[in-house]
Design brief:
The protein has about 325 residues and is mainly α. The chain is about 45% helix and about 10% strand. The protein has 2 domains: about 1-90, Dna Ligase, domain 1, CATH 3.30.1490; about 95-210 and about 220-285, no CATH class. The strands form 3 sheets. The chain has a two-stranded antiparallel ribbon with strand order 1-2. A two-stranded antiparallel sheet has the order 3-4.
Length: about 325
């Protein structure tokens, strides 16, 4: 009787070990499970790849987990037990990839970035004319963020995910009562000014002050004279001079986006913006500043008179000259 009990205990311990701890896998393996695959076909694939070495044991673990396997691309880590493999397949714990869309990029730049991103699939343009929103993206339509998605996610699907996140932010603004500082009225105007602020400074703490300069100029019917709008016009919407200098002659480029020659805001955003820039425009600092120029330390110096601005501008020219 004692011997029988010991034998049962040994069998139980062996079973627990084989299900929950034992693994023939010594290095990570990536396997793609097609839609509609049967448990038997998946088990055979796992054996061929060395993830498991017992089909019956794996099938038992699948029944214990959920009785099914989900499609997708999976990355099984070293020493993953049969139980862990079955749980991953049952819960759809697919391999993931992280894609960072930085703030301040244009749609064209974002598409270039996604084409180079590893772990995604497909193209960034729709196949022919379409009325789907993701096929007709404009600057300001997507929200820059860090996106963690299943490996193999299509690039268009990721773009649509970023678009939907910006739609959610817009909807929240609508629900809050569409509050914006005068003279801004529409969401397009808010995001357009936010895109200029986003391009002017990388410092979130400085953005409300930069926004206040442009709001003050709009209220006084002064031209915004924002260099990033000229860059956008010169580059056909790319938003990057690619190492070329912005010259005085460029400020005369004929474009509705040129805020040196046109009053008011450009017709649409010049980049895709983050939360800090949007908040800065919705709640700009309370200042009477009308000008700003780089301070040589990554920030800006602000002034409310043209004379003071020119003194700061002379300081900035001296800094650039000393660096060159």
């Amino acid at each position: 009787m004692i011997f029988f009990g010991l034998a049962m205990l040994a069998a139980l311990i062996t079973g627990v070990y084989m299900v929950g701890f034992y693994s023939p896998l010594r290095s990570s393996v990536v396997i793609n499970v097609p839609r509609g695959a049967s448990v038997s076909s998946v088990a055979r694939q796992l054996v061929q790849k060395g993830v498991i070495d017992s089909v019956p044991l794996f099938k038992m673990c699948v029944r214990m987990a959920d009785g099914r396997v989900q499609s997708g691309e999976y990355e099984f880590p070293p020493y993953a037990s049969a139980w862990r493999v079955a749980r991953m397949l049952a819960t759809g714990d697919v391999a993931a990839t992280t894609v960072v869309i930085p703030e301040g990029l244009t749609i064209r730049q974002i598409k270039q970035l996604l084409l180079q991103a590893q772990g995604l699939s497909g193209v960034v343009e729709c196949d022919g004319p379409s009325d789907m929103p993701v096929c007709n993206l404009r600057d300001g339509d997507v929200f820059p963020d860090t996106y963690r998605v299943a490996r193999g996610t299509s690039r268009l699907a990721l773009l649509d995910l970023a678009r939907k996140k910006m739609v959610a932010i817009h909807d929240a603004w609508e629900r809050a009562g569409r509050i914006a500082p005068s003279p801004l009225k529409t969401w397009n105007e808010v995001i357009t000014l936010a895109s200029i602020v986003q391009k002017e400074t990388p410092r979130a703490e400085e953005m409300p002050t930069v926004a206040s300069v442009y709001v003050n100029r709009l209220r006084k019917n002064m031209r915004l004279q924002a260099d990033p709008t000229v860059v956008y016009a010169l580059t056909g919407g790319l938003g990057d001079m690619q190492g070329a200098a912005l010259l005085r002659g460029h400020l005369k480029v004929d474009s509705p986006y040129n805020t040196y020659t046109h009053y008011g805001l450009p017709p649409a955003p010049i980049a895709n913006v983050g939360q800090a820039a949007i908040r800065a425009v919705l709640k700009p600092a309370d200042t009477n500043y009308l000008f700003f120029v780089a301070d040589g330390r990554g920030g800006h110096r602000f002034s409310n008179s043209y004379e003071q601005h020119m003194r700061y501008h002379a300081d900035w020219r001296a800094i650039k000259k000393s660096r060159n």
